[in-house]
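pasting for the record
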Amino acid sequence: MPLSRYPTSRRSLLAAGVAAIPALSMLSARGALAAVPPPPAETGWVESTLNRMTLEEKVGQLFTTRVYGETADTTDPDAVRSNQSFLGVDNAAQAIACYHLGGFVYFAYAGNTRAPEQVAGLSNGIQRVALDQPSGVPLLLSIDQEQGAVVRLGPPATQFPGNMALAAGRSVADAGTAAGITGQELRSVGVNQNLAPVADVNVNPANPVIGVRSFGESPEMAAEMVVAQVRAYQDAGVAATLKHFPGHGDTSVDSHSGLPVISHSRAELDQIDLPPFRAAIAAGADSVMTAHIVVPALDPSGDPATLSYPILTGLLRKELGYDGVVVTDSLGMAGVRQKYGDERVPVLALKAGVDVLVNPPVMRIAYDAVLAAVRNGELTERRIDESVTRILRLKWRRGIVSSPFVNTADIAGTVGTPDHLAVAQRITDRTTTLLRDKPGALPLGPTGRVLVTGWDDPATPITTAALGRALTDRGLTVDVLSTGAKPSRARIDAAVAAALSHDTTVVLTNRASSDSGQQQLVQALLASGARVVTVAVRDPYDVMRFPEAPTYLTTYAFNEVAMRSLAGVLTGAIKPAGRLPVTIPDPANPGTALFPFGAGLTI
């Protein structure tokens, strides 16, 4: 099926019966963990390592957690205080010795990703401590580097606009290239597992947690792009992680703060949610992340998928034949903590079929609970061995055992190189989507004054400034007036007053559908009589709140590379080439589209 014929709505998805995915029927199982018998060297290392491990060491391999600090042996008071609060130790080195950990996950807020050389030093320090332990097993060092809306390692690392933007560009090759560059840069700083790509199919405009993190509403397009990214990450030596199984694309509840219920029937799951997972499993995805969602069609117990034996063992392991590493989403999220206590969740997850327990709220409680479950017979050591075997096998196959360290001298020639940045810009230039330009406001002429206003991160207001710089670089006279994430009445009035003294106003929105202040800002600007260009810099659905907007574009991302592409489109230097990878419903006419799947204009 060519890209132009992808189904355009949930109803047409069902009618088309897309579960067959003919374009993916020829997928190879290259790299699949269970596709071929393991080589003798791998088997020998895995078995000998497992046989010499104590129960405590085996249980430790099942845990990946966050840790605060820029170095493995940090003594920074703030980092130590944070680590003590949930790990009970000062730093990463002590955590490895105490819990025999299998991995860490890096976060910017934890101080792990300040700069590429610092990340590499942290990674090398962690692996040095791990290899000095009796078991001598290096760690999985993970990160959520989805690109676009979810990024932990910022510039100078190469930034891309994210999955929905790549889908708007309609190039499977670009999706693979973006993952390949991201994977190379991650591996150069010692990160050996990316908690990406997102395989969810976003069919709900009100989805508060997935949205642009998805490749859109077409299961087939999502499957092709997910497969391309899995292969590219793993070719770069980084384990890829499909998320969030069995599919988080049709929810209006954020599993960070609540427990979503997915009401899809089994037929809908097969036709909408599961195709990207099936395809990527066939392509050899190293790991799969579970979702904290209830799916009654698969398990009527009310347990979230992370704790569901029918979903993880019945569907994922047995029906889909997956024998790779199953990891949880963060166990600190509300979606997995509502029904059971923190001491029960890790045990129930293992009983369901999980291998790696990510970010438990209190490490000591979770670790001791698993040990106790083995000692009292609720879990068998054989069951623990099954998971540890998968984890060790992954570490061998991704080269983590043979090459645990990175050479910091190689970073400058890999991370954020001119070639990588140029490729990222070219890819992004193919994604900006123009949906309406009724008065012919575009392209902006070289004369006249332009106001850039609207949404920005209140802590670091860089998006409006980035667009202002990019338009200035294109020869325009530009003023910037950020109104923040939730504009007040005073800021709205100031923006309207400024708009009346400029020839064109470009107003940025980010999830305006859930923020009345942003809606009031756009509506006030439109009512003022000023010439207004409205741009959604994240979810394209914002226009549902101001469908009268005469000129409307969407970039799907708010980083600098997306703003440079937007500036090019606004000025006519770049032809808008993106096409919607989702349907935007018409709020005034339920069941019809304000903008259909595939919509996109040229100037």
